[in-house]
Amino acid sequence: MDLEERIMELSRYGYACAQILAILLLDTVGEENPKLVQCMQGLNGGIGGSGDVCGCMAAGACLISYFTGKPDADSYDSPHHKAALGEFTQWFTDEMELEYMGIDCRDIVGTSPAKKVQYCPGIIAATYEKCMEILENRGLL
Fold first, then answer.
1. CA-CA distance, 49 to 35, in Å (whole number)?
2. Taking a C-beta distance cutoff of 8 angstroms, is the pair 102, 96 a contact?
3. Please, what sign has the CA dihedral across residues 129, 86, 54, 61?
4. Is 53:47 a contact under the CB 8 Å cutoff?
5. pLDDT digits (tens, 9 = 90+) for 63-105
6. Rg of the chain over CA atoms, in angstroms?
7. What are the backbone angles phi and psi of residue 104, rounded to the nearest 5°?
8. What is the pLDDT of residues 102-116, one digit of tens each?
9. Which of 8, 57, 17 shows the shortest CA–CA distance to 37?
């Protein structure tokens, strides 16, 4: 099953952007973590369903941080953390502003269910691919 087919399958199960990205990450690392998937729901539809910052941008930052963030009280974040997040957020901002005139969910799809079906799967796939590329380029995957 290719990436876009997997995204559509997860959409049919009722998952949205941030949850789908979490599931794709978990698929990649061969883990299950229903609580992670559950908490990522708060990013769907623009943080808290507000229509603000696209859930893919927030979830992409979480995917990067899954590998680079501070894991416990006695550790530090990876030396790659800030640069990887910076690369991702710059890419996301550039891409979304060029294509949709903004990074907020309301800028990209507004309240149109048709636009969600049309745009979101591609944005989810591009976000996942970019996160994996950033991580691979730094030897973190």
1. 19
2. yes
3. positive
4. yes
5. 999 999 999 999 999 999 999 999 999 999 999 999 999 999 9
6. 15
7. -85, 145
8. 999 999 998 888 999
9. 17
